Amino acid sequence: MSGIVIAGASRTFGTVRAVDRVDLTVEQGEFFTLLGPSGCGKTTLLRMIAGFTPLDAGEIRFGERRIDRLPAHVRDIGMVFQNYAVFPTLSVAGNVAYGLKARRVPAAEIGPRVEEALAMVQLAGYGGRQPHELSGGQLQRVAIARALVIRPHVLLFDEPLSNLDARLRVSMRSEIRALQKSLGITAIYVTHDQEEAMSVSDRIALMNHGRLEQVGVPEEIYRKPATRFAAEFMGTTNLVEARALGLAAPVWVSLRPEALRFAEEAPVGWPRLPGAVVALEMLGPITRLDVKLENGSVMKMVLLDAPGQIVREGQVVTLAYDPSRLTVVS
Ligand SMILES: Nc1ncnc2c1ncn2[C@@H]1O[C@H](COP(=O)(O)OP(=O)(O)OP(=O)(O)O)[C@@H](O)[C@H]1O
Ligand SMILES: [Mg+2]
Predict the structure, then answer these.
(1) Which of 19, 34, 44 gets mutated to test ligand 1 (max ligand atoms within 8 A of its CB)?
(2) Which residues pair with 19 in a beta bridge?
(3) CA of 318 to the centre of ligand 2 (A)
């Protein structure tokens, strides 16, 4: 089956345009992420695809087949929620079997398919356990197995890792990505975490106030943000009026902290900016600095840790920046 086409999808709640005329195509086998701040409409759009929230306008197709008026259970979709939504009174196997029983899959098929799904998420042999006997990461795997067991055309994830601790989030995200790749299944993944989105996605749609702000591969959105919102949401940046950098045009530019260096270490030809260090955070592999320029603006800068490197608050420095990394934003 081919990809997912969303055309003019809209949904209003009272006066809130939760999803506002969204056009989007997700390719077959793609890992596609909806990224954006709280309230921007990610969950609403995902629920529209799943069949839990009706559209006010627009349509959704799987290939040629229009699905937005079909009930959720015939859409061929598996969904994984933030809070696991694991039934506490059913065993692990009972939870995973649930969708198969609801679809009236023959009893003899259920056992092997449950085992197969549990094996995919590294939980082979856990079928007899009760949910309260599992860790958060294992519960989330049960939720993924439950979504996979029906062999869906599309997997939807709504912030599946937000209840896990930071380290587990990092390992689970690569596990989810590896599983999606090995199955070749189309995935739409919702997160508000820019780093998580960049680490797993083929493409990202950045959302803001119900609309798509920018769609692209992670590097593109990071390096060539189209708007001030995109530049700031996709990590730390310096948003400056070009005049502050000595350029004539009255436009806004984004300059990432890693595009700045101390002048002594920068190639000849990079523009110079004299200033003084006003704040400093040593984070291990990198040090973050705030440097106040002579015109009063503060530039954020990041340095890779290097032996013998000493930078102090108050130090007078000259910065230089890579002019090819200035991005004009609207
Ligand atoms: N059932 C509903 N009734 C009324 N308003 C709703 C409903 N569902 C969502 N909204 C509103 O629609 C907007 C988008 O909500 P949505 O849950 O899609 O955002 P989100 O991007 O998923 O946010 P978060 O990151 O906090 O989960 C919000 O303003 C929200 O309050
Ligand atoms: Mg949400």
Answers:
(1) 44
(2) 11
(3) 44
Over the stretch 82-135, which tens digit does the pLDDT of each residue have?
Answer: 877 889 999 999 999 999 998 899 999 999 999 999 998 999 999 999 999 999
* Fold of the CATH domain 4-232: Rossmann fold (3.40.50)
Name the amino acid, one letter, at 112.
P
Query: Whose C-alpha lies nearest to ligand 1, atom 16?
Result: 41
Q: In which residue ranges of the chain is CATH 2.40.50.140 found?
A: 238-329
Cα 214 from Cα 234, distance rounded (Å): 11
Nearest CA residue ID for atom 17, ligand 1 = 43
Q: Order the strands of the 238-241 sheet from edge to edge.
A: 238-241, 252-255, 327-329
- CATH architecture classification, 238-329: Beta Barrel (2.40)
Tell me the per-residue pLDDT of 199-219, one tens digit each, with 9 for 90 and over: 999 999 999 999 999 999 999
**Cβ of residue 15 lying under 6 Å from some atom of ligand 1:** no
**Ligand 1 centroid distance, CA of 44 (Å):** 6
| Lowest mean pLDDT segment, chosen from 47-56, 84-93, 269-278 | 84-93
